[in-house]
Protein: procollagen-proline 4-dioxygenase
Organism: Carassius auratus
Amino acid sequence: MVAREFTFVVCIWTVCAAGHEFFSSTDQIAQLVEKKKDLLTSFSQYIDAEEKNIAKMKSVYLNLLLSYSDPVNHEKIMRDPVAAYKHLRQLRDELINIVNHIRPSFYQCNEYQDELDFLEIPQPEDIDGAALGLIRLQEIYKLYPEDIMKEMALSADEAYHVGLVAYNEDKFQHAFLWFLYSLDTLTEYSAITEKKLLQSLISSAYYFGSLSVAIYLNQQLLNIDPTNDEVRAQLNRLLYSHRTSNADIFTLNTESSKYERLCRGEVDERTSRRQRALSCRYSTGGGNPRLMYAPVKEEVEWDEPLIIRYHDIISDTEIEILKNISIPQLSRSKVYQDGWSAVSQHRVSQSVFLQDDPLSARVSQRIADATGLSIETAEPLLVQNYGIGGRFEPHYDALETGENDRIATFLIYMSDVEIGGATVFPGIGVAVQPVKGSAVFWYNLYKNGELDLNAYHAGCPVLLGNKWVANKWIHEFGQEFRRPCSLSEWE
Ligand SMILES: *[C@@H]1O[C@H](CO)[C@@H](O)[C@H](O)[C@H]1NC(C)=O
């Protein structure tokens, strides 16, 4: 079809550029009549091509329309990381499909063209990032591909892509398990082939150190591709390889840190007798007039260091407004490394500092009232949303800058999380679950200004749900009369 358009354009060009005096030669006129005939033919061919193009566009459009008429609740789908991954991929393919079908036409509708120019198509890096989120979930929660696909399954091609991402990150066992799943779900419509999958499985097994599995699979590959000399040569190399390890590639048995075990709920000191002795009470912030008639519900989640939960600190409507203000401004959260802030795999979320916003000012005042601390020197409220496999690996909030450090953290949960997403303190073995409308508060520094090593904490990856939090980091300056310094080493 491109060639036909070309003919059409060339014809016009010939007519225009020839520059003959037609009036002085009947032969020239005869030629022109011939040219007009040619032109009409290519014009008609062009119309045919455009008609076919229109028909194709119509069918693409109708198909896309069908996929949108499903009465789906997007928020509900996106709370499942597997569904979110699947949708992101599909969306990319569909958007590219639309754009590709617009391009060949000469006809341009300006408004539509503008929309296309501003269209942000998810990039391959976005899809890879989503796959990496799934892999990180698997690692922390020790999940097999089958376990992670609770509500929605991935196709063989999608699973193959997740495997490739794992492979490129040198996570050979996870890659192997995804390739295996892909092989199990392979259909005649899959783009990926059995041969290619077997080859990927062999490489993953080999690099993982599972030589016997690699050899077995290489035999299988040779059975279905007996004339392939490269496969035969590879089998010989494997047979004479000295990589001697018989690691079991089928069983997820990765070493776990305390952080990971806390996230999985395998340990939680709070269930012990010590926790039951802790209290729940209404507090007026030591006689704060603003709290006399509306005391805050305070619960001690842990005693040393003190972790306090404030219940019903923010209403559902306030949460909705904060989310609405934040959504258009969200961008990938950063971490401080060597004095610089940078994007990191350790912190996967999007966030925004809300400056000069009346509601966040009101929420901040409530934080000051509840904790009795000054928020004059605090950072603006930081609203955060966690994406696929979103998490914040163990860290201290204090920046150890020497002066006016983050003395305390007030963390508001703006959503419940169905599975995962706990705030965990590996040093003391405590996991705090997100409860919408509540907040937890703890000190990062001792009264003497030293870092409290037990304030080390993490945000576990979200396995099912959409996690929203808002953070207030309270600083040292201004607290001199509220939380007097201490010379003691012990508080
Ligand atoms: C938040 O935004 C949604 C969608 O635009 C809207 O329906 C809702 O009314 C907004 N909520 C508030 C409290 O402003």
